[in-house]
């Protein structure tokens, strides 16, 4: 993640752990916290795949040495149109966003260039994390690019992410590129455990896609 600037941190409601102790917390720790809290659910999902002889996820995360970016790729066993729906329709996003036990309220999700998106994530401890951004490019169902930040937290810290979808043989090959301000912030985000969280989120997407394919 991004930049060696001083970040103005102001919690939405209450903050636990290191932030409560008065110690500084790098912004990406909270920024990505909601992605990787549910290891038990992840283990259960992997066991389910193995028992049912389903294809295991092929998530790959790359951190190029010459660019402050993260490139993530993954194959979904569903047509591109369905993967696009699950990643852009509010009723589906509310299900896979965050971790188990979180309740998501989507107050904006305008999938068009210049359209805003906003998600309130409520965790079991009463914390509320508000994720916001703006769509910069939309080419349904092949590509969308958006900004990704947090409301009233980590001022000046906004990612630019580009997501592409290519279909072949009924499967969708997904690619995401996240752009960071610095190598320090990029490497810090990766070290925070993002891979575990991404696998979890994609596991929920797989379950939603399976339901849509059967419908």
Features of the shown structure:
6 helices; Alpha-D-Glucose-1,6-Bisphosphate, Chain A, domain 4; 8 strands; 30% strand; 215 residues; alpha+beta; 8-stranded antiparallel beta sheet
Describe the model.
The structure is a single chain. With 215 residues, this protein is α+β, with helices and mostly antiparallel strands. The chain has one domain: START domain (Alpha-D-Glucose-1,6-Bisphosphate, Chain A, domain 4, 2-Layer Sandwich), CATH 3.30.530. It has helices at 27-33, 39-51, 80-88, 90-96, 183-191, 194-214; strands spanning 60-62, 69-76, 103-109, 116-122, 128-139, 143-150, 159-168, 171-179. A hairpin with a 3-residue loop joins strand 5 and strand 6 (143-150). The relative contact order is 0.24.
Distance between the termini: 40 Å
Q: What best-fitting shape do the alpha-carbon axes yield? A: globular
- SSE run: HHEEHHEEEEEEHH
Q: Compute the average pLDDT.
A: 76
What is the annotated CATH architecture? Answer: 2-Layer Sandwich
Number of domains: 1
SS strand fraction = 25-35%
Helix content: 25-40%
Biggest sheet: strand arrangement: 1-2-8-7-6-5-4-3
Poorly predicted sequence stretches spanning 5 or more consecutive residues: 1-27, 34-56
So how many helices?
Answer: 6
Chain-wise SSE layout:
Elements: H1 27-33, H2 39-51, E1 60-62, E2 69-76, H3 80-88, H4 90-96, E3 103-109, E4 116-122, E5 128-139, E6 143-150, E7 159-168, E8 171-179, H5 183-191, H6 194-214
Antiparallel strand pairs: 1-2, 2-8, 3-4, 4-5, 5-6, 6-7, 7-8
What's the gist of this structure?
With 215 residues, the chain is of the alpha+beta class.
């Amino acid at each position: 993640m991004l930049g060696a600037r001083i970040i103005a941190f102001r919690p939405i409601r209450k903050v636990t752990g290191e932030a409560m102790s008065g110690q500084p917390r790098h912004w990406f720790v909270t920024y990505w916290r909601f992605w990787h809290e549910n290891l038990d659910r992840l283990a259960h999902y992997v066991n389910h795949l193995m028992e049912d002889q389903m294809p295991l996820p092929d998530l790959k995360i790359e951190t190029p040495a010459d660019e402050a970016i993260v490139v993530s790729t993954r194959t979904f066993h569903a047509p591109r149109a369905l993967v696009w729906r699950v990643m852009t329709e509010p009723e589906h996003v509310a299900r896979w966003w965050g971790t188990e036990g979180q309740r998501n309220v989507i107050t904006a999700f305008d999938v068009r260039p210049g359209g805003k998106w906003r998600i309130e994530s409520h965790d079991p401890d009463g914390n509320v994390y508000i994720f916001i951004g703006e769509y910069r490019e939309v080419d349904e169902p092949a590509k969308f690019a958006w900004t990704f930040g947090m409301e009233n937290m980590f001022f000046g810290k906004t990612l630019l992410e580009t997501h592409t979808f290519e279909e072949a043989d009924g499967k969708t090959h997904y690619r995401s590129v996240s752009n960071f301000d610095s190598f320090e912030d990029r490497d810090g985000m990766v070290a925070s455990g993002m891979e575990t969280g991404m696998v979890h989120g994609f596991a929920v997407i797989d379950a939603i896609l399976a339901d849509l394919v059967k419908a």
